[in-house]
């Protein structure tokens, strides 16, 4: 028992050594890699569910799935994409890059970091086991409104509830770690207003996580006690109120959608200046805009509930508060455009994804403004227009942002350049496929096609066929992405330390590939002369 | 304490505790929102619920000076039974014309179609929600549970007043009852 065996001891069986290394690692780079691979895996799992949905909707009528199985696919696709693909991808990027960008040797709480990652495989094992249970998987949509999830939920709902609890614990612990790291481990000279914007956006995201993930945990706990312990939080028969569920859920849910976009804002603010070879325009306003968006996210939840019979005063408040979000978001978009203005722009793959993000995310923002208008929302509510809106902000927002980040930092992680030709092919095919998939949904939605239903009227057949063809193409482009990543890990042109000639920041001062341990002694941070802020 | 140069000087070990406490508080906040929501709804009538039995107060005509004398509004009665409730449930009058400030009564018919005794509880809801603050019930079957033997029928009374402060843009309001089965297992 007292014998000390290092995890990489040569006396161990190679498999044990491998397991020991990844199970017990406290290194921020290794944990970041684990997060990113978990996210990538679940991205394909949830993507496969999207393929089932689109195959079923290829033509009107019921082809491949029974209605209840279709509902289960819709539910799991949403849950796994939100909690399994997007959020772990951002936490993985934060783990890899925040210590490198602020000159810290590691995350502040490395063991906690290991714990927050290793909770997740168990959480998703619980969630992804539900389709094989009696009664099937959760089938009430990712928003799991009561009473669908309480009175009428299948028995597997309890596994879903505990899965959500675990995901919440993981996110909160990860967020605590990120905040403590940023507060305490910045290199000398890196004051608040000199932090890279990716670090800023993640700091604010981490606060959002700590504020709202516990509320989600509270909601699912109430569901659990309603289901099994005789309480009536959401049951009208016992004096509760199902609408209360929606208030609580969206109090979590709206900040949650900004948790899924703010890190992407940070990524665009790193990538665009690099390839425009200019300082980021309006650094300070970017920071303030991010903070304003985070604050506003707490007072707009009611715009998801306009049709629940809210009084006019409430509808007006939530409508104007929601429209107000367009102001800080507009500040950001104009800052990115102004950064490009008169820049020496080149379009390597990370830049393509970042510019694609800005343009397509703006389209999603505009449809969001349309949805914020109360009288219009009564028409759009629960139609495919909403599906088009949130896929436009999530796919080109969260996913394109993550892809820009992966292409941007992959040479630093692996020491190899990715295949630029394949990267360009990936971007252009993904761009075409995203629009082919989601743009027609605007039209079918405006014409009244309801969401979350297995079948649809014949008049929507053409739009849906186009969407399904686009979705199949979109799935293929991500297989290409997987191939590019694996190819880059296995070899390729060696990357220089700086990788991009317009890049700035501490992460480019370490060798490529980044060694396991960096910044054992804190570097001295000096922003470029004459610049108030590092981009 | 464990501090590093170039930071805000805060000890490393306190911040995680503060943040963890913040998370715990937010978990509690979710539960605190439940009673807050109840209070908010009682004040605003937001969820169409009506407080318990009303005490009939004197309606001073002064409160009604800017309104045409003798206006009449329509009140509609709606019923539904929840899943698994084997009762027939309908209003004996579909709608009534009422004058604000005056007391009216109507009755609802129920019949237990099951072969065993069943206990039910009716939950009222008023729409538009703004009207729920102005509909006062002095007597209602929804104040109590009902138990019906197999095949038993019952006519259940409601007595109510729509007060004169009802906003004048409301011409029609509906009072809906949902009947839930609440057998004690």
> How many whole angstroms does the radius of gyration of chain B measure?
25 Å
Low-confidence stretches of chain A: 1-5, 530-535
Helix-strand pattern of chain A, N to C? Answer: HHHHHHHHHHHHHHHH
The CATH level-2 architecture of the largest domain in chain A is identified as Up-down Bundle
Helix content of chain A: 55-70%
- Content of β-strand of chain A: under 5%
CATH level 4 superfamily of the largest domain in chain B: Ctag/Cox11
Assembly level? heterodimer
The domain tally of chain B reads 2
At the first level of CATH, what is the class of the largest domain in chain A? Mainly Alpha
Could you name the CATH topology of the largest domain in chain B?
A: Ctag/Cox11 (Pfam 04442)
Biggest interface and its residues per chain? A-B, 44 and 43 residues
CATH superfamily of the largest domain in chain A: Cytochrome c oxidase-like, subunit I domain
Topology, number of strands of chain B: 9
The CATH class name of the largest domain in chain B reads: Mainly Beta
Tally of DSSP helical segments of chain A: 16
Largest sheet of chain A: none
Global morphology of chain A: globular
Characterize the structure shown.
Chain A is mainly alpha-helical and 535 residues long. Chain A has 2 domains: 11-236 and 246-253, Cytochrome C Oxidase, Chain A; 261-519, Cytochrome C Oxidase, Chain A. Chain A contains 16 helices and no strands. Chain A has helices at residues 14-24, 28-57, 67-102, 110-129, 157-184, 197-228, 242-259, 262-276, 283-296, 312-324, 326-340, 349-372, 374-380, 384-414, 420-446, 461-490. In chain A, α2 runs antiparallel to α16. The termini of chain A are far apart. The relative contact order of chain A is 0.11. The model of chain A is unreliable at 1-5 and 530-535 (pLDDT under 50). Chain B is of the alpha+beta class. Chain B has 2 domains: 13-44; 70-181, Ctag/Cox11 (Ctag/Cox11 (Pfam 04442), Sandwich), CATH 2.60.370. Helix content of chain B is 17%, strand content 36%. Chain B contains 1 helix and 9 strands. Chain B has a 5-stranded mixed beta sheet, with no helix packed on it. In chain B, strands 2-4-8-6 form a 4-stranded antiparallel beta sheet, with no helix packed on it. In chain B, 20% of the residues are buried. Mean pLDDT of chain B is 81; it is low at 1-8 and 61-65. Chains A and B meet through α5, α6 and α7 of A and α1, β5 and β9 of B.
């Amino acid at each position: 028992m007292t014998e000390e065996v290092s995890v990489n001891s040569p006396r161990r069986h190679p498999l044990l050594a491998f397991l020991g290394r990844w199970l017990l690692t406290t290194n921020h780079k290794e944990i970041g890699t684990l997060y990113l691979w978990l996210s990538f895996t679940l991205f394909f799992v949830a993507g496969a569910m999207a393929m089932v949905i689109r195959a079923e909707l290829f033509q009107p009528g019921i082809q491949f799935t029974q209605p209840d199985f279709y509902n289960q696919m819709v539910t799991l696709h949403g849950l796994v994409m939100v909690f399994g693909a997007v959020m772990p991808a951002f936490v993985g990027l934060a783990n890899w890059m925040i210590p490198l960008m602020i000159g810290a040797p590691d995350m502040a709480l490395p063991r906690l970091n290991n714990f927050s990652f290793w909770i997740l495989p168990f959480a998703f094992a619980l969630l992804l086991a539900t389709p094989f249970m009696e009664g099937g998987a959760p089938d009430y949509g990712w928003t799991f409104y009561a009473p669908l999830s309480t009175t009428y939920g299948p028995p597997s709902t309890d596994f879903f509830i505990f899965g959500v609890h675990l995901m919440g614990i993981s996110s909160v612990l990860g967020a605590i770690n990120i905040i403590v790291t940023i507060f305490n481990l910045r290199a000398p000279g890196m004051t608040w207003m000199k932090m890279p914007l990716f670090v800023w956006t993640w700091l604010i995201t981490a606060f959002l996580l700590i504020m709202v993930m516990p509320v989600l945990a509270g909601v699912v706990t109430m569901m659990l006690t309603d289901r099994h312990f005789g309480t009536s939080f959401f049951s009208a028969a016992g004096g509760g109120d199902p609408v209360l569920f929606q208030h609580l859920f969206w109090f979590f849910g709206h900040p949650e959608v900004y948790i899924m976009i703010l890190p992407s804002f940070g990524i665009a603010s790193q990538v665009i200046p690099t390839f425009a070879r200019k300082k980021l325009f309006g650094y300070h306003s970017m920071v303030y805009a991010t903070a304003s968006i985070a604050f506003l996210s707490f007072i707009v939840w009611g715009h998801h509930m306009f049709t629940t019979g809210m009084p006019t005063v409430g509808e007006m408040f939530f409508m104007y508060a929601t429209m107000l979000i367009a102001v800080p978001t507009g500040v950001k978009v104009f800052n990115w455009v102004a950064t490009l203005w008169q820049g020496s722009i080149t379009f390597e793959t990370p830049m393509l994804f970042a510019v694609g993000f800005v343009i397509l995310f703006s389209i999603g923002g505009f449809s969001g403004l349309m949805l914020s208008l109360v009288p219009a929302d009564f028409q759009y509510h629960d139609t495919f227009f909403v599906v088009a809106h949130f896929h436009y902000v999530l796919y080109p927002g969260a996913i394109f942002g993550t892809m820009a980040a992966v292409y941007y930092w992959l040479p630093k992680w692996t020491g190899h350049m990715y295949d630029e030709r394949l990267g360009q092919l990936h971007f252009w095919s993904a761009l075409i496929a995203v629009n082919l998939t989601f743009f027609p949904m605007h039209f079918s939605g405006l014409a009244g096609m309801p969401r979350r239903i297995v079948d649809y009227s014949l008049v929507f057949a053409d739009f849906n066929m186009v969407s399904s063809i686009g979705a199949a193409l979109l799935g293929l482009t991500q297989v290409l992405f997987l191939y590019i990543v694996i190819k880059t890990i296995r070899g390729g042109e060696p990357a220089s330390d700086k990788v991009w000639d317009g890049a700035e920041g501490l992460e480019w001062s370490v060798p490529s590939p980044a060694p396991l341990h960096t910044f054992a002694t804190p570097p001295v941070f000096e922003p470029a002369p004459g610049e108030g802020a590092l981009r | 304490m464990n501090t590093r140069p170039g930071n805000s000087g805060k000890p490393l070990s306190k911040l995680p505790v503060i943040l963890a406490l913040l998370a715990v508080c937010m978990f509690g906040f979710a539960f605190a929102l439940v009673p807050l929501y109840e209070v908010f709804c009682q004040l605003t009538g937001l969820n169409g619920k009506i407080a318990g039995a009303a005490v009939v107060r004197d309606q001073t005509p002064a409160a009604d000076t800017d309104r045409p004398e003798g206006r009449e509004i329509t009140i509609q009665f709606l019923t539904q039974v929840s899943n698994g409730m084997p009762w027939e449930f309908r209003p004996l009058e579909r709608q009534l014309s009422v004058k604000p400030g005056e007391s009216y009564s109507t009755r609802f018919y129920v019949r237990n179609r099951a072969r065993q005794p069943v206990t039910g509880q009716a939950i009222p809801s008023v729409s538009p929600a703004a009207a729920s603050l102005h509909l006062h019930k002095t007597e209602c079957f929804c104040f109590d549970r009902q138990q019906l033997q197999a095949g038993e029928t019952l006519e259940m009374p409601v007595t109510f007043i729509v007060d004169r402060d009802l906003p004048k843009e409301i011409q029609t309001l509906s009072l809906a009852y949902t009947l839930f089965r609440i057998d004690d297992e």
